[in-house]
C-alpha cells in the first residue's frame, strides 16, 4: 500500500456506480418451450404489504394419465433449517420421491418460529394437497398422505400470516393455468429483494424424444448455497432465515432415484457454484419435478443404472439449465455491477478447484477490486494461496502449489484476446488500458491455472462488492 | 426480506458514517515499561514518496552480557509466501532459534519479485547484521552467519528500492536508541494504511522477577491471518503481498523451543483470532525476541519442560499482550466504525468454537448489520449454522447443533445489563431501543452459546463492513 494511499484512506471520497437495471433479463418465452402437464399461478395473499406484490405461488403437476410425478430436492446444509425445509424433506422421504404440488410464499421465511412454524408449513401443504385432482395411480398401490412440497422466504423470527396464505392458496384454484402469464406470476411470487422475476424454459432431446424444462428461482443476497441431497438425517425442528429458492419442472419421465442423483450433480455445478456475499442461508432449497407428460406412450422412465446413456444426456441438459437459472441470481446480486466467471484449472481434483474458485469468488478484496475495475491479480493469488488443498492420493502428503507454475488470465466475454496478467508466477507487463477496457465491461472471466497439479477444473460465478450492497444490508430491518 | 425493502433496494439511498479518528489510541508510555537491552529506530529511507512518512525500522537486541537472544516466529500459511518470510524462516532454522536483529520496511512488500526479491531480502539482513555489536558468545560456540530477521509490507509485484533501503539501514546507526521516541519511530515505520502507530508495553512478574514486554504491529486491511510456527517445510520461492506484521520483545530469558511454543499459543488466541475482511495475506509475520536482559544474574531461562510453572505464567502474559496488539489492528480496520468481540461457547472443542467465531466475524451480512447498528441475530445464526463441526470423538458421528439449545446475547462494553435476543432457540421480545442503545456504542460483544455440546470456548475480534471499506479497496491502485 503506497503512502499516497494512506492519504486517500483519510480523505475517504466516495464515488458510486449503482447496480444497472436488470429488467431486460425477464422476457416472454413461447409456451411451446414449457413442459406439458403443469398448471400454476402466483397471487397476492397479503404476506407482503404492497398489494401489487405477489407472495404466494402454487405449482401443480397434472399429467394427462394421472401417473405419479417423480420429485427430488436439495436442501441447505445449514444446521438451522427452516420449517418448510424440514417438512418438505419429511414428505419426500415418506413418499419415496413422489409429489405433485409445490407451494411457495415470499415475504416471511417461517424460520425460528418453533412449533407454530411447523404447523403452518404443514397447513400450507394440506391446503395445496386439496387442490390436486384425485390421483389415478399411486406408487405400488400406496396412497400418499401428502403430495406437496413447501418453500418460504423473507423475514425471519416472525410467524406466517397463515390464514391469509391459506385463503390465497384456496383462491389460486381459479387462476391456475399453463399459460406463459401463469408461469410469470408464479415466478413473481418467489421474489424478495430480486429486481426481476427469474424464469427460463428450454426444449431438449433425449433418445430422439423431445422434452421441456422450465424453472424459476429467486435470490439476491445471502447467496452462497451449499446444498446436499434430500436426506433422512436432519437436526431437530427450530431454525431460521431465507434466500435461494428454485423450482424446476420437466415433462420427461425419470425414476426418483435418478432424478435425485441428477439434481445433486446439477446443483453442485450451478447453485452450489455461485456467490453473491458468501452467506449460506437456512432456507436454501431447489426442487425438481418430472411428470413424464411429454411422452406418455414411452413408459420407461430415464434411469441411471438401467439406461445410463439417456440418463447422461438428461443430466447434462439439467446441469446447463440449472446453471442458467443460478447465473440469473448472481446477475441480480444485491448491489452487483459485474458478472464474473471464476475458472480454476490444474487443481488436484474437482473439489480442490471448486474450493479455490469459491474462495476467490467470496474474497472481499477481490470483489471490491472488481467493483473498482482494477486488475489486482495480487488479491487473486492471495485468496488462491489461502486454501489448503487435499493431500496427494498416492503419497498422503499435503498438495503444495508451486507459485512458479501459477498463471492468471483475464478473459473478456466479447471474444477478443485474453489478457495474461501472471504467467508461470511472473507478473506480465500488463497493458493497463487493455485491462481497464475488459474490466469496465459487465461480464468477464478470471482464469486461474494452478499449473498441472491435476486435471481438476471448476467454475464459479460471482459479482462485485459495492456501496450499494452495504446500503442494502446495512439497514435491512430499519 | 420485506417488500418495503425491495423498494429500498431500488431507491439506493446512501448514508454513511465514516470511520472515527483513532489517534487517541497512540500515547506516550513510560520508558520503565519497555524491555531492557534493545535499541531501535525508524526513518524515512525513500520507499514511500512523502518525506515525513517513515518506512524503515531497525530493532537490535543488545543485552549487557552479549549473550544470544532467543527468537521465535509465526508465518502466514498462505501458499504464496513473500521473500522476507522465506529468508527469515531460513535464518531462524539455521540458527536454532537465535537472532539479535529485526529489519522492517513498509511501502513495498517485496512479493512476486522472483530471485531479485530474495537477493534484496538477504541484502537487508546483511546490512542490519553489520550494525550488531560483535557477539560475546554464541550458542554452543558456533558463530551465526546471519542474525537478523526481515519483514516487508506494501505494494506487490514491485522490487524494493534496495539501495535507498540499504543506505537507510546504514544511516539508522546514529539514531538507534532505547528512548520512547525511538520505539515510536520504529512503530511508525511499520505503517501502511494504518491511521496510527500501534505500540504497547507492559511490566509483568514471573516467579518474583519483574520483566517487560513491548511490541508493535501494523495492519488495517487484508486482515484474517492464519499463521503457523516457523517451520522447515516451505514452498518454493516466488510469492506475494502484504499485511499483518508484528514484533514483540521481552527482557525475560526463555529457551528458543519454549519461546516458539508460547508464541504459537499466543498467536492462535490473538492475531489468528482477528478479522477485518477475511483475507489471509502472504506476508503475515509475528516475531518474538527474548534477550534475558532483565535479570542477567538469573541464568536459567524459562522452559516449558523443566519449569512449567514459570512457563505458564509467561505464556499467559504473552497471550494477553499479543491480544492487546491484535485488537489495535481491528480498531484501525479499514473503514471500521465498530469494535466487536465475538464469543462462542458450549462448542465441542476450542477449535470448533474458533471456527464458528471466525465465520461470524467474517460474515458480510453480520458485518453490514453491525455497521447498520441492527441487532440482526438471524444473520448470526445463519453464519453459525453454516460451519461443519468436528465429529464426536467417542462415536465418530458428525456433531449436530441442537437449535433449541442455542442462545445469542448482545453484551454492552459499559457494564450495563446484557441483552438476550435468542434464548434456547426462542426469539426474545427484544426491546429495540435498548438494542440500538448498545449497538450505537463503538464497543460491544456478541455472545453465542451453542448449548452444551462441550466446553469449547473461543473469542474473536472483528469490525463492521462500511462504505469506506469499499471505497478504500475499490480503487486501491488507481
TrEMBL record, chains A, B:
One of its GO terms (biological process) is L-arginine biosynthetic process. The record marks 153-154 as: Involved in the stabilization of negative charge on the oxyanion by the formation of the oxyanion hole. GO terms for molecular function: L-glutamate N-acetyltransferase activity; L-glutamate N-acetyltransferase activity, acting on acetyl-L-ornithine as donor. GO terms for cellular component: mitochondrial matrix. Substrate binds at residues 192, 218, 243, 334, 473, 478. Keywords: Acyltransferase, Amino-acid biosynthesis, Arginine biosynthesis, Autocatalytic cleavage, Mitochondrion, Multifunctional enzyme, Transferase. It holds the Pfam family ArgJ. Its main location: mitochondrion. SUPFAM superfamilies: DmpA/ArgJ-like. The alpha and beta chains are autoproteolytically processed from a single precursor protein within the mitochondrion. It catalyses: L-glutamate + acetyl-CoA = N-acetyl-L-glutamate + CoA + H(+); N(2)-acetyl-L-ornithine + L-glutamate = N-acetyl-L-glutamate + L-ornithine. Transmembrane segments: none annotated. Heterodimer of an alpha and a beta chain. PANTHER family: ARGININE BIOSYNTHESIS BIFUNCTIONAL PROTEIN ARGJ, ARGININE BIOSYNTHESIS BIFUNCTIONAL PROTEIN ARGJ, MITOCHONDRIAL. Belongs to the ArgJ family. This is Arginine biosynthesis bifunctional protein ArgJ, mitochondrial. It comes from Candolleomyces aberdarensis.
